[in-house]
Write a structure and sequence with these properties.
heterotrimer, A mainly alpha (540), B mainly alpha (87), C mainly alpha (193), A: 540 residues, mainly alpha, 18 helices, 68% helix, globular, disordered N terminus, B: mainly alpha, 82% helix
């Protein structure tokens, strides 16, 4: 790069030009709001990760060690609640979704920019209240089942209020995205020319809007139990503790699809670009996102097989659970078909996208053992379950998030990441992740329960393996973050389209101007027309 | 005013239906009490939705937004009740 | 059915989609309470039969009339501003507010009477449901009143016109939804034993 080129591009920082607290705190720019969400959610990823490191430290020793069992229970509660509510649910939708939905559909902002800003600040308000509950921390597990959560002396009511606010942020963001996608597409951008990330985000947003209110009423009712003595969940008053679980899981199952669908959308974007091949089965991938969202509402009872739920319900929910694997499998086959005979390169976004596919296959397949009523009796609430959801949530969503961050880092910041550092980090993360979590499948089948601070000595060897794995994972994550920070200051200046992508965000500058496009584009093409023999696709 | 006329008519019907449902509640019809009351409530709700909320003249997309959530609501009620009834 | 290309009257499509999506969340929020009602009614039919008689049917009916009328005034107000009739809008907003206030006042009387008879949320499952459902509903009435008061202030500043009635329209939809919830709460709590 010539010096003149660097000087002229450095002076054009696009949407990042204006500086100062006011320009960020009161911004209506979806890109800045997305950046604020990225920083906030990643901060909780690191904090939640630190808690995980402490848990794994304790688990090196079968008996008492380092801190009390009660502290251990508090730590895994905080780890779960923080990771789920403050990191993984908002991570892709509110950050990358916010930043890129308007860019990908060719408009200047979301449908309701002020609502978008309000969503961010109510997220922050919820975080502060949730943190406030730490004066008397819960040890209920992130699922805070009754009766314990209704009776324990911890600051449960405060947590309910805090998470209620966080949930409102999720709802309003989803609402904003649905209306945006329906009403603000660029001229010529019909539904079948939408990038697959948008289809994924649309399905995600529908789930957010329809399921989150149910956890909202759950928080309200739990608070009412504690504050007013209402007995909905209390058997002594004629109530039903399983009603809590029905409400809780009616949200918490669909929410795992809120976690995974955006990540799948990112994979659908990255694979064609780095295989230089049109996506295979565009419509199948698009509709499978909607199918996953819908079927996701039918299966919540598979979290309750051993809780005292009726066997009839167990059979119905188990039967329905198998169906969700079908659209998921369709996506995986289509990604692999896209790779077949592609011209594949292994830049960091592609490394993470491929990692997603590999690890999510493991996570998804192990879900079958859990969804199967009979086998679940054996593995429920064991480390088999812990491994399953870490393979899907971390091996899936977090790898998808990392893929998106690496893919879109140049667009958001105007800088390229250091590929050498990225690659080193990736090796450590993938190796560390598998060494940490794969042994847990074995531990679970051997009978080690989850949420136990102390365990029989026979489980120790694999626990040591897992803990050592977590150290590699942590180092890898830290190197990745160091790469982000370093590249922000001194990375190579990014061109408009470093990956030669065909979606609309690459047609504007890196970083984009505040108004996204100097001129709103008119779309006449499918965004996946990569490679030589694509005349038939261009005709779409 | 012509524009208001339909609203006044609907309001009148709603009041009549309210009177009917209260009157019926004083009779002992066993299980039919609930059926009648909820049917009348649903009729009232439909009138409010169609006329006051303008659904009668709305585009299909908005109608979809209005109707689809009831499916999800039905899911949670049915799913919970199947469990509760068969324990 | 009219075409997709709306006239300038009424709120734009994005606003209508937005408010209906929000009402979907409200439906699911109250939905949890309706689910609890369904389960407990089936599990404890005698309790419900006995306790619902403690409620004053006529006060409940009066409240129903008040809310239905407030929906009428809201609908008329919106029709009025679509035709530029500022004064009718202002009168209707004020009437809606008054009727909503009346609703809350009667609720206050009912709750006071219940408390004086020793009936509290913790007393039994029926009254737990009664207070939670009417309480959550009452909060929504209060929020609606706050928004309508703000609309009235803006209306008096001449903010609304046939070209711009969006805030009134979407508040109207919210308010009708609040009415809809009560249309179901009334028979479920007061009439069906």
């Amino acid at each position: 790069m010539s010096n003149e080129g660097i000087a002229s591009t450095l002076s054009d920082r696009g949407y990042l030009t204006e500086k100062g607290f006011h320009s960020w705190a009161f911004t209506l720019d979806h890109k800045r709001i997305g950046i604020m969400y990225i920083v906030t959610t990643l901060a909780f990823f690191l904090l939640g990760g630190l808690l995980a490191m402490l848990l794994r430290l304790k688990l090196l020793i079968p008996g008492p060690a380092f801190f009390s069992d009660h502290t251990y229970n508090v730590l895994f509660t905080m780890h779960g609640a923080m990771m789920i509510f403050l990191f993984i649910i908002p991570a892709i939708p509110s950050s990358l979704g916010n930043f890129f939905i308007p860019l990908l559909i060719g408009c200047r902002d979301v449908a309701f920019p002020r609502l978008n800003l309000f969503s961010y600040w109510i997220f922050v308000a919820g975080i502060l209240v949730t943190i406030g509950s730490l004066v008397s921390p819960m040890d209920t597990g992130w699922t805070f089942y009754t009766p314990y959560s209704a009776q324990t002396a911890a600051a449960v009511t405060t947590l309910c209020f805090g998470l209620f606010l966080v949930g409102m942020s999720s709802i309003l963001t989803g609402l904003n995205f649905i209306v945006t996608i329906h009403t603000m597409r660029a001229p010529g951008m019909n539904w079948y020319r939408l990038p697959l990330f948008i289809w994924g985000m649309y399905a995600t947003s529908v789930i957010q809007v329809l399921s989150t209110p149910v956890i909202g009423i759950t928080f309200i009712l739990l608070a009412a139990e504690r504050l007013f003595g209402v007995g909905f969940f209390d058997p002594a008053k004629g109530g039903d503790p399983l009603l809590f679980q029905h409400f809780f899981w009616f949200y918490s199952h669909p929410v795992v699809y809120v976690m995974i669908l955006p990540a799948m959308g990112i994979v659908s974007e990255v694979i064609p670009v780095f295989a230089r091949k049109p996506i295979f089965g565009y419509k199948a991938i698009a509709f499978s996102a909607l199918a996953i969202a819908f079927i996701g509402f039918l299966v919540w009872g598979h979290h309750m097989f051993v809780s005292g739920m009726s066997t009839v319900s167990g059979i119905i929910f188990s039967f329905l659970t198998f169906f969700v694997a079908v659209p998921t499998g369709i996506k995986i086959f289509n990604w692999i078909a896209t790779l077949y005979r592609g011209s594949i390169t292994f830049e960091s976004p592609m490394l993470y996208a491929l990692t997603f596919i590999f690890l999510f296959i493991i996570g998804g397949l192990t879900g079958l053992f859990l969804g199967s009523l009979a086998t679940d009796v054996h593995v429920h609430d064991t480390y088999f379950l812990v491994a399953h959801f870490h393979y899907t949530m971390m091996g899936g969503t977090v790898m998808g998030l990392f893929a998106g961050l690496h893919y879109w880092f140049p667009k958001m910041t105007g800088r390229m990441l250091n590929e050498g550092w990225a690659r080193s980090a990736w090796w450590l993360i993938v190796t560390g992740f598998n060494v940490t979590f794969f042994p847990m499948f074995i531990l679970g089948v051997q009978g080690m329960p989850r949420r136990y601070a102390e365990y029989p000595a026979k489980y120790q060897p694999l626990n040591i393996v897992a803990t050592v794995g977590s150290w590699f994972l942590a180092i890898g994550v830290l190197i990745m973050f160091a790469n982000f920070i370093r590249s922000l200051r001194s990375g190579d200046i990014a061109p408009d389209n470093p990956w030669q992508g065909l979606t609309l965000e690459w047609s504007t500058s890196s970083p984009p101007p505040e108004e996204n496009f100097h001129e709103i584009p008119t779309v006449s093409d499918w965004p996946y027309s990569y490679g030589k023999n694509t005349r038939s696709e261009r005709a779409k | 005013m012509a524009a208001y006329r339909i609203y006044l008519i609907v309001w009148g019907v709603l009041l009549v239906l309210t009177a009917v449902t209260v009157a019926v509640s004083f009779l002992n019809l066993g299980l039919w009490n609930a059926t009648v009351a909820l049917s009348i409530a649903s009729l009232k709700a439909a009138l409010v939705a169609l006329y006051f909320m303008h659904l009668r003249h709305e585009i299909k997309l908005v109608l979809g937004f209005a109707i689809f959530p009831f499916l999800i609501l039905g899911l949670i009620i049915i799913g919970t009740l199947i469990d509760a009834l068969y324990r | 059915m009219p075409s997709k290309h709306e006239s300038h009257k009424g709120a734009p499509v994005s606003a209508r989609l937005g408010i209906w999506a929000f009402l979907a969340t409200e439906l699911l929020l109250f939905g949890g309470l309706f689910t609890a009602y369904a389960e407990f009614r089936l599990a404890h039919p005698d309790l419900f039969h006995l306790e619902h008689l403690e409620l004053n049917r006529l006060m409940g009916a009066l409240n129903t009339v008040l809310l239905l009328t407030s929906s009428l005034t809201m609908a008329i107000g919106i029709a009025a501003i679509r035709q530029g009739r500022q004064r009718v809008l202002k009168v209707c907003l004020a009437l809606t507010l008054a009727l909503a206030g009346g609703f809350l006042f009667i609720k206050y009387l009912e709750w006071s009477e219940d408390f004086s008879h020793g009936l509290f949320p913790a007393t039994n499952l029926f009254f737990g449901l009664y207070f939670m459902m009417t309480g959550l509903h009452g909060i929504h009435v209060l929020v609606g009143m706050a928004v309508m008061a703000w609309l009235l202030v803006r209306a008096r500043q001449g903010a609304f016109s046939p070209e711009y009635s969006t805030p009134v329209e979407i508040t109207g939809l919210y308010w009708h939804f609040v009415d809809l919830v009560w249309i179901y709460l009334f028979p479920l709590l007061y009439l069906v034993g």
